[in-house]
Design brief:
- The structure holds two protein chains of two kinds.
- Chain A is an all-alpha fold.
- Helix content of chain A is about 70%, strand content about 0%.
- The termini of chain A are far apart.
- In chain A, helix 4 runs antiparallel to helix 5 and helix 7 runs antiparallel to helix 8.
- Chain B folds into two domains: about 30 residues; about 60 residues, Methane Monooxygenase Hydroxylase, Chain G, domain 1, CATH 1.20.58.
- The longest helix of chain B is centred in the first third of the chain and has 29 residues.
- The radius of gyration of chain B is 25 Å and the shape is flat.
- The chains are: A mainly alpha, B mainly alpha.
- At the A-B interface, helix 1, helix 3, helix 4, helix 5 and helix 8 of A face helix 1, helix 2 and helix 3 of B.
């Protein structure tokens, strides 16, 4: 029973990321007026994976070989594990734990820590500095994203993700908490390495990616983890801010459509915005982005949390 | 399904995922033929000889950022249970957290003045 659920989840993630890679290439090509393969292009990611699979695995000569081999696995697992708590439909979730939001935050932290360790275990300066740069970037936006989640928790009063979705029946949280929605969306862009924040693999410093030392299978898992992460971030945005599986209005016509489809539609909307951001925006200077995260986003989201908590208390009790 | 079972389910899921990935990675790295050329095993340095290893000195600002992040993330984690139980703890809990956040923001302003994010 549970094993079949796990297999369904993993194969769905695999199929979704293959589709996502294809759609991303197709859209980027369309924006840049290039032509790429049609439906058979769907085979391209699979072919790439097969080709990488038969490459040679090169381990660094050092004391970090075991860590070097295990880290992509752990990194991939820390991202896939988040999917265990994401409710796709009413009751369609692997583990609807009562601290779902906290679990997600913990896993986000874990994957960030693992990036540092990947840089350390690679035993290469380029990997190390790439890891440090991308982690410093993620860390600058991580706290404001956590505060955005806190705003959602204040409104919903529960950390269980299905409760959070059900609490949005009257109004999706992207409307009352719109600035926090923007903050969390930008955090998602940072985590998925979309270009305004794509330090780790950008243009003239393209050597500075943390996965530079990885070949063959290790690289497959790191690259795969990136696309699973894109899917994950869009699902998290959907659950926290876009009302999960709920239709936008309680109209008969909308209720006819299965709620899983609504979830998928909202996820694809987020993914499309990610991909268009990837094509459309230039890369900004690194120090400006880090300072922006710390000096603008963090104070602003703190003020928003206090305001949201005060408003909720005053409207609940009716007194100051 | 009760909560305890659910917890075990996702832990089981985690372990399963780790296990299969480890198996795949190790099997491949063992099974593929090795063509041992010495150059191949050196770290990437854009074709230059390696002068220094990774574990040399780093820019101090990375440490500053990491320290500030650790302090603030611990503080922000406190907000999670506070946010979910806001209706039971009422105004007393609210003002307690405001005091806590005020102390936290003194640290933030100190870091700002010291130039922790000045690159």
């Amino acid at each position: 029973m549970i094993i079949s659920e796990i297999i369904i989840l993993l194969s769905a993630l695999f199929a979704a990321s293959v589709l996502l890679i294809y759609v991303e290439r197709k859209l980027i090509a369309a924006v840049r007026l290039k032509k790429i393969a049609r439906v058979y292009g769907l085979m391209q990611p699979i072919a790439d994976a097969f080709k990488l699979f038969f490459n040679e695995t090169i381990l660094p000569r050092g004391k970090t070989q075991v860590a070097f081999m295990l880290l992509p696995v752990l990194f991939f697992t820390s991202i896939v594990a988040c999917w265990a708590v994401i409710p796709v439909d009413e009751g369609v979730v692997l583990a609807d734990i009562n601290a779902g939001a906290l679990f997600l935050v913990a896993m986000f932290f874990l994957s960030i820590c693992l990036i540092v360790v990947i840089g350390w275990a690679s035993d290469s300066k380029y990997a190390m500095f790439g890891a440090l740069h991308s982690v410093a970037m993620m860390v600058a936006y991580e706290l404001s994203a956590m505060l955005a989640i806190v705003c959602v928790l204040i409104s919903s009063g529960s950390m269980r993700l299905s409760d959070i979705v059900n609490a949005q029946a009257e109004m999706w949280y992207c409307l009352p908490h719109f600035p926090m929605f923007v903050v969390f969306f930008i955090y998602a862009l940072v985590r998925t390495n979309c270009p305004p924040f794509r330090m780790s693999e950008s243009g003239n410093i393209s050597d500075g990616e943390y996965s530079i030392e990885y070949t063959s299978v290790g690289y497959i898992f790191i690259a795969f983890a990136r696309y699973v992460n894109m899917l994950l971030m869009s699902a998290v945005i959907t659950v926290f801010f876009l009302g999960g599986w709920l239709p936008p209005f309680e109209v008969e016509l909308f209720l006819l459509i299965p709620s899983v489809i609504w979830f998928g539609l909202k996820m694809s909307l987020c993914l499309l915005i990610f991909i268009f951001t990837k094509t459309a925006f230039p890369i900004y200077r690194y120090d400006n982005l880090v300072q922006f995260g710390w000096k603008m986003f963090l104070p602003f989201s703190l003020v928003w949390v206090i305001a949201a908590a005060g408003y909720t208390l005053v409207s609940a009790t009716g007194k100051f | 399904m009760n909560n305890a079972t659910d917890d075990y389910l996702y832990i089981f899921f985690l372990v399963c995922a780790v296990f299969f990935m480890v198996l795949a990675v190790i099997a491949v790295s063992v099974l593929t033929g090795k063509n041992r050329v010495r150059k191949k095993y050196s770290a990437r340095e854009n074709g230059f000889k390696i002068l220094d290893n990774v574990y040399s000195r780093l820019d101090l600002r990375f440490y500053m950022g990491a320290m500030v992040f650790v302090v603030f993330s611990v503080a922000v984690i406190f907000l999670f249970p506070w946010a979910t139980s806001l209706d039971t703890i009422g105004f007393f809990g609210f003002w307690s957290m405001i005091v806590f956040l005020f102390i936290m923001s003194i640290g933030f302003i100190y870091g700002l003045r010291k130039g922790a994010w000045q690159w």
